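The following block was generated as part of the benchmark described in Methods. Ligand: iron/sulfur cluster.
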Amino acid sequence: MIKTVIESVKRKKTRAVRVGKIIIGGNFPVSVQTMWKKPLSCADKKILPELIKLQDIGCDIIRFAVPDMQAAEFVGNLSKKTELPVVADIHFDYKIALRVLDFPVAKVRINPGNIGKESGVVEVIKKSTDKGIPLRIGVNAGSLPRNLQNEKDSALAMVKAAESELNILEKYSFKNVIFSLKSSDVTSTIRANRLFSERFDFPLHIGVTEAGPLIPGIVKNSFALTTLLKEGIGDTIRVSLSSEPEDEVLTGKEILKTAGVSAGGIDIVSCPMCSRSVFDVKVFVTNLYKNIHTIKKDVTIAVMGCPVNGPGEAKSADIGIAGAGKYAVLFKKGSVIKSVKIEDAPDIFLEEINKF
Ligand code: SF4
């Protein structure tokens, strides 16, 4: 089912490219992607339930690295079993791209810096055309084509790499394509995407590559992606983190909300705690957050550390809770509605959120 667009940011109109059941670009909602992170040899029967869990928390597209023909068989077959559109990520050997297109998968990503000779790329283009499957040309600052590796302006070098690939695609009138220009440097990532977006109307997959562990990775991605999305640039996002795919998806969803390009969802207000705290906000809100990923409601909830200042400070929240030692008070728009035992508070609060 294709979601309707509810946005407060005026997005740049790009071409629409269908990736399985998701449409990227064309003013369709910005989709969230992640990558499978375990070796495919470990991807036993548990993989499908794991993909369902990712879908439940808001993942729209899943990408797999496909390093060899065995992996191509695995990923190709898997794409027939999961509801999530499957993207095959191919480096070095265009023949692997040709094999996954037999199944087909929903999209193939190739890196112009290492896919090899133009003749191989042409074969992939021809087969993608026959199958109606889009390509992503994924340019990375760390693996640029040889002729651009000494370019001082890394953002410009990425745009040139994308352009040179585009020249090949245009020879075959191939327009079913998404581009990405990624660097581990936030400034270069932003600049490359701005430059590309000024010149072309192909949809953009945006992200900061190799962004690091959880906290620095979230900061870099949030800054780069929110900056671009607020300018209307970006049609699908992947938050690259040295962490679990779930963290990438949840961070991606939060970035879309913060940038004003998603259809809403639960917004959490929670206090940072201070010496007035009589409630472990950190534990309560961490557990609560795990239980509300799948709730699709536009509601602002608050979790506050004391009953004196909490309800007042969080009066903009639709519904909130403030701990008060052995009990907790629930409030709506700042007015207390009931008091509950602290041990019952997690379940009762979740119930109230679901009822809202
Ligand atoms: S709500 Fe209470 S505990 Fe939390 S920061 Fe404010 S005063 Fe401190």
